[in-house]
Write a structure and sequence with these properties.
4-stranded mixed β-sheet
Length: 393
């Protein structure tokens, strides 16, 4: 039987976290190539440490001359990301950081599995399993602990960047332990917030006095009580932040990027990968399907799993789990999903309009639970499949 009363914890990290700096740069490289050619192939990885950023991986354009030209823009792209995030530290500054570009052309052996050919449909860019999840516990149909952990850091980034709180630095982490009663989130037992600060004289209590009002305005009314434990900058000073304080890598925050541990994860990272890579596109499709199942009233909670083989177009399996909350049998949901959406890599990209430069904005504060953008960003958060699903069951 599913537990009804418990406490569950999730964390988020800010755009200035070392790993998120790397995710941002990798997705900015992806966006630059997709802006040039919607079918561009990109698998960009970034490493960052004191005074250095290294970018590697594989890229491909149909025009080799343009590919050479774009290789020369990587330095500019990376510096623009670091500047926008806000790093102007002595040992990590957007103007002086050393950037090494090791990107190269996509492997022909990978391309032959993905590309369509005579008698062969376009295949998945890799094998693997991908999960999507949705729950009624927040308006965005996301788990509350991760959704509000993201919201806290987004708010702190806003007031840092607009000058309201100039003492805050770009690097930060949040963590919420949410109390559930009868399966519903009702309060917060502990708040953990560590944020970089630019004034070395500030104490942990000083930082709490700065951030607490923003945390209170972000969380639902009544969730913070006299019994809530607060841990704000619990180690003391946090002046040295970002890649100068801790090395960063693309793809190292996959639980932060998804559901905060409230749902399974297939293991594949998102950032820096073009949408032929099902690690990214099929995970987006699985979230889209799970969200539409819940929005259609078929379940209060839904997990969708998809699986693929490299070079094979159709998913090997579709699995649905409604965790005992279903109004429709899970097997019917699986059949309906197969009817209402083409889950080949090409079908996913066309249905969700993924061949657009919309990925840099996903690199921090979660890939899910965001409002769809008019230009196609976060298209997987739409609930426009509800009626089709209802008709199919």
């Amino acid at each position: 039987m599913t537990r009804k009363n418990y406490t569950f914890t999730s964390e988020s990290v800010s755009e200035g976290h070392p790993d998120k700096v790397c995710d941002r740069i990798s997705d900015a490289v992806l966006d630059a190539f997709l802006a040039e050619e919607p079918e561009a192939r990109v698998a960009a990885e970034t490493f960052a440490t004191t005074n250095r950023v290294v970018i590697g991986g594989e890229v491909g354009l149909s025009d080799q001359e343009k590919l050479h030209d774009y290789m020369g823009k990587i330095d500019e792209i990376a510096r623009a990301c670091i500047k926008d995030i806000g790093y102007e530290q002595e040992k990590f500054h957007h103007e002086t950081v050393e950037i090494t570009n090791l990107l190269h052309e996509q492997s022909a052996h990978i391309a032959q599995g993905v590309d369509a050919a005579e008698g062969k449909d376009e295949g998945a860019g890799d094998q693997g399993i991908m999960f999507g999840y949705a729950t009624t516990e927040t308006p965005a149909l996301m788990p509350a602990p991760i959704q509000y952990s993201h919201a806290i850091l987004r708010r702190l980034a806003e007031v840092r960047k607009n000058g309201t709180e100039p003492s805050l630095g770009p690097d930060a982490k949040s963590q919420l332990s949410v109390i559930y009663e009868d399966g519903k989130p009702v309060g917060v037992s502990s708040v953990v917030l560590s944020t970089q600060h630019l004034d070395p004289t500030l104490t942990s209590q000083d930082i709490r006095s700065i951030v607490e009002p923003y945390i209170r305005e972000t969380l639902p009314e009544g969730w913070l009580t006299a019994n809530t434990e607060w841990h704000v900058n619990p180690t003391g000073k946090f002046v040295i932040g970002g890649p100068d304080g801790d090395a960063g890598l693309t793809g190292r925050k996959i639980i932060v990027d998804t559901y905060g541990g409230a749902a399974p994860h297939g293991g594949g990272a998102f950032s820096g990968k073009d949408p032929t890579k099902v690690d990214r596109s099929a995970a987006y499709a699985a979230r889209y399907l799970a969200k539409n199942v819940v929005a259609a009233g078929m379940a209060e909670r839904c997990t969708i799993q998809l699986s693929y083989a490299i070079g094979v177009s159709k998913p090997l399996s579709i699995y649905a789990d409604t965790h005992g909350t279903g109004q429709v049998d899970a097997a019917q949901i699986e059949k309906a999903i197969d009817q209402v959406m083409d889950l080949t890599p090409r079908g996913i990209r066309e249905h969700l309009e993924l061949n657009k430069p919309v990925y840099q904005r996903t690199a921090a504060y979660g890939h899910f639970g965001r409002e769809p953008d008019a230009d196609g960003g976060f298209s997987w958060e739409r609930t426009n499949l509800v009626e089709a699903l209802k008709k199919a069951v």
